[in-house]
Each structure stands twice: as structure tokens, then as C-alpha cells.
């Protein structure tokens, strides 16, 4: 049986830390579905379509991934996609309590889908989409923390370069 993991998130935007998680997750799973959670209550910088485009471009070297979007319960989506696991990354101890609560709720809702936690690679421990967006909004150089397409889109979004550059 194929081992399939769902890697959910807002990916607003995708970072090199996310890509590292996918790469490392593929050592454990046959396939990873990178999936944007559509949460209308959460304010995002990029539209779902923009995020899907950036994720597709950033992960194009991987053949055993799929990129999708969903709304509703993650475990329902996972069951529909025949997933065995939910892949989650943790940067610090501060992530643990929230992630632990989510994992327990998901387990209660569907015991067939396990949550697998991977610690963030050390070089990405300080990296989060929120911090990257904040730095980029003030003209900070986030090169090396995000894929080139994301760096370009952040500069465009914050008017640091024109779209034609």
C-alpha cells in the first residue's frame, strides 16, 4: 500500500523551510500532497491561486508530490485522498502545544490517519512565513529563505520592483 502524507498549511508564502520538510518527508512517504487550507477567516497576503502557482513552481523538481487545496476538516480530506498521515513541522517548543492539540483532535476524529512531526532543519528554525513577510514588507532581503519566485512575488506585492522587471 502506498504511503501518502498530507502536508497542510496556508503557505502564505511557501518558504525554503517548507521545501526542506517536503524533501525530508519524501524519505518517509511515497507521496506527499501539499495542500493549502482555505480558511476564509484568515487574512492572507497572497490569493490561493498565487500560492498554488508559487508552490507548483517551487516544488517542480519533485515527481511524487501533488498540490491541492481544501476546506473543511483535514482528516476528512485525508480520508478522501487515502492518506495514511498528516505531516507537520515544528520549529520550537512553542509550536508543540498547539500542534499536539491538533494531532489529538485529528486522532479522535479519524484514528486511521496518523500525525507525523518532523523537526525543522536547523538552518530554517527562525524562518516562518509571517517573519519573512514582515521583513520583505520593509524591503528586507529574504533571498535564500524563500524560492526565487516567492522572492520576486514579495517584491512585487510590496512595490519594491515592477511586475515587468
Structure keywords:
165 residues; alpha/beta; Rossmann fold; 5-stranded parallel sheet
Description:
- A five-stranded parallel beta sheet has the order 3-2-1-4-5, with helices on both faces.
- The chain has one domain (4-125): HUPs (Rossmann fold, 3-Layer(aba) Sandwich).
- It has six helices and five strands.
- The protein is of the alpha/beta class.
- The protein has helices at residues 16-25, 48-58, 74-80, 93-109, 129-137, 148-157, and strands at residues 4-9, 31-37, 65-70, 85-90, 114-119.
- β2 (31-37), α2 (48-58) and β3 (65-70) form a beta-alpha-beta unit.
- It is globular, with a radius of gyration of 16 Å.
- The model has no long low-confidence stretch (mean pLDDT 93).
- The termini are far apart.
- The protein is 39% helix and 19% strand.
Structural class of the helices, strands and pairings? alpha/beta
* Radius of gyration, CA atoms, in whole angstroms: 16 Å
Strand content: 15-25%
What's the architecture, going by CATH?
A: 3-Layer(aba) Sandwich
> If you average the pLDDT, what whole number results?
93
What is the C-level CATH assignment? Alpha Beta
The main pleated sheet reads as:
5 strands, parallel
C-alpha geometry: globular
CATH superfamily: HUPs
Strand order of the largest sheet: 3-2-1-4-5
Question: What is the topological layout?
Answer:
Blueprint: E1 4-9, H1 16-25, E2 31-37, H2 48-58, E3 65-70, H3 74-80, E4 85-90, H4 93-109, E5 114-119, H5 129-137, H6 148-157
Parallel strand pairs: 1-2, 1-4, 2-3, 4-5
Question: What's this entry about, in short?
Answer:
The protein is α/β, with parallel strands linked by helices and 165 residues long. The protein contains six helices and five strands. Strands 3-2-1-4-5 form a five-stranded parallel sheet, with helices on both faces.
